[in-house]
Amino acid sequence: MYKIPVSVLVVIHTPDLQVLLLERADAPGLWQSVTGSQDVGETLAQTAIREVFEETGLDAGKHDLRDWQLQYEFEIFPRWRARYAPGVTHNTEHVFGLTLPAPEPVVLSPREHLQQVWLPWQEAAERCFSWSNAAAIRRLGGE
């Protein structure tokens, strides 16, 4: 089954703008926020809640999850295009923020991520490999 070219990006952060980043297992050295494709029948908020739980073990329903009403369209990296139907080259990403009271350890899915780190928003934006992820974190910081 092919992935739907609609996804969420969930920037997990604290009130003092520490941001959680995850290192991809399928691309070591590439860091990102929680991301994932929408499943058939899901709302974007349901996708965000599911992806946060799958990738971190956190229950987004126990924290402040907000739809930023922001979306980015980007070209899917060629290395990941086989996950989508033939001819699909672009994805629309919807941005959410999840505020936790303080940094906390997360339970990573080993098939998806190798490690996690909490960083000040400026450092987190610099470390992201994805321009849309970096842009979302910069918006969090007011840039």
Write the layout of secondary structure elements.
Elements: E1 6-13, E2 18-24, E3 31-32, E4 34-37, H1 44-56, E5 64-75, E6 90-99, E7 113-120, H2 121-127, H3 131-140
Parallel strand pairs: 1-6
Antiparallel strand pairs: 1-4, 2-3, 2-7, 5-6
Helix pairs in contact: 2-3
Can you tell me about this structure?
It is a single chain. The protein has 143 residues and is of the alpha+beta class. The protein has a single domain, classed as Nucleoside Triphosphate Pyrophosphohydrolase, CATH 3.90.79.10. It is built from 3 helices and 7 strands. The strands form 2 sheets. A 4-stranded mixed β-sheet has the order 4-1-6-5, sandwiched between helices. A hairpin with a 6-residue loop joins strand 2 and strand 3 (31-32). Helix 2 (121-127) packs antiparallel against helix 3. The termini are far apart. The relative contact order is 0.29. The mean pLDDT is 96.
